[in-house]
């Protein structure tokens, strides 16, 4: 159910219809400077563009890709040079086609390092998930 103040903002031509934190009944995301975006398929194309946009918005980015780590490391260097000293960029080469292997390793890295992942952006064409999304465990 859309909140009345959201309708008012739209009718008044508000620039950002989500400016009211609970406009859609969801808790707001933490501020970008305190959280991370995890981007799969990050080494090229759409994934790279998503990673750059997240970094520009102030998020730290965790880049993951099926390819070897050298490609990700090169991209991380480029992003850090564009983003300056405050750019938070982490690379984790992982094969996410098999959730029991690569995804588990990626999950462990996130937990061990204490990254507060607020956004998951899946741009990999290697994702092989099938089944009901909402019944999955959060980890």
Task: Characterize the structure shown.
With 139 residues, the chain is an alpha/beta fold. It is built from four helices and four strands, in the order H-E-H-E-H-E-H-E. It has a four-stranded parallel beta sheet with strand order 3-2-1-4, with helices on one face. The longest helix has 15 residues, at 69-83. The chain is globular, with a radius of gyration of 17 Å.
Fold topology:
Blueprint: H1 4-11, E1 36-40, H2 45-56, E2 60-64, H3 69-83, E3 89-91, H4 99-113, E4 117-122
Parallel strand pairs: 1-2, 1-4, 2-3
TL;DR of this structure?
This protein has 139 residues and is of the alpha/beta class. Helix content is 36%, strand content 14%. The chain has a 4-stranded parallel sheet, with helices on one face.
How would you describe the oligomerization state of the chains in this entry? Answer: single chain
Gyration radius, rounded: 17 Å
Give the number of DSSP strands: 4
**First CA to last CA: what distance?**
28 Å
What's the total helix number? 4
Strand percentage, roughly? 5-15%
Fill in the keyword field for this structure.
139 residues; alpha/beta; four-stranded parallel beta sheet; disordered N terminus
